[in-house]
Amino acid sequence: MNEALLVWLTTNPVSTWWIRHVASPLDPMIFRATHGRFFSMGKTRMPMLTITMTGRRSGKPRFVHLACLEHEGDHLVVASAMGQPRHPGWRYNLEANPEVEVQVKGERFPARAEPLTDLEKEKIWDDVRRAIPQMQVYEKRTDRNIRVFRLRRLQVTKEGP
Questions:
Q1: Domain assignment of residue 161, yes or no
Q2: What is the pTM of this model?
């Protein structure tokens, strides 16, 4: 599919509404159940992941499905909220409780979320735009500083008898 058509299909007002209200609750479940092979729109065509985090107020598990960028062995996720005026709620959850679980294609692992500094973000932003072409539309929709988080894999140690 042509990239411009894909960007239009995923950023027009109808699609944005559908993604926010229908796909967002379904995608984490589909993605986890299929071990990262599918989401509500079918097979994944770009790097994607589902983050399981702890809600900052509720203390309950919260799930978010996002496009990502693999960078230096870590995964980067962008708190764009599709260019909405406010930051997505999951951004605040990550800041309050950075220990998360990440599901990527065929693998689930613990990670720690770390916000990038503005300087770090500036260095990788062109890579983000290339990996997630919709970001160019999202940037135009909002004046806020869109945050980027690094999901750094945690080493799991096994305790034995």
A1: no
A2: 0.81
